[in-house]
Amino acid sequence: ANIEVTALCDPDQHQLAEAAALLAQRAPLHKAPKQYADYRKLLADNKLDIVLIGSPDHWHALQAIDALKAGAHVYVQKPISVD
């Protein structure tokens, strides 16, 4: 696809590094995305077109709201929130 993954976020550094390496292999210029342990820092540091949220359910609503406030379109896995 004609997209560029610019940043990834995961508090698990092992999972984060593995995902970044996989994306770097598949990227046209083999450029790894920036890596973050905190989604709020990711949103503050980048101007994103779209955010894909695949975190545990109890984080969905907060992360979606923050991503929308940052001006991004959001794709969030179900459920959107637990309440």
- How much helix is in the residues? 25-40%
Largest sheet: 2 strands, parallel
Number of strands: 4
Strand content: 15-25%
Label the overall shape.
globular
| Average pLDDT number | 93
Number of contiguous helices: 3
Order of helices and strands: EHEHEHE
Uncertain spans: none
Ordered list of secondary-structure elements with their pairings:
Layout: E1 7-9, H1 13-26, E2 34-36, H2 39-45, E3 50-53, H3 60-69, E4 73-76
Parallel strand pairs: 1-2, 3-4
Commentary on this structure:
By secondary structure, this protein is of the alpha/beta class. It is 37% helix and 17% strand. It has three helices and four strands; from the N terminus they run E-H-E-H-E-H-E. It has helices at residues 13-26, 39-45, 60-69, and strands at 7-9, 34-36, 50-53, 73-76. The protein has a two-stranded parallel ribbon. The N and C termini lie far apart (35 Å). 10% of the residues are buried.
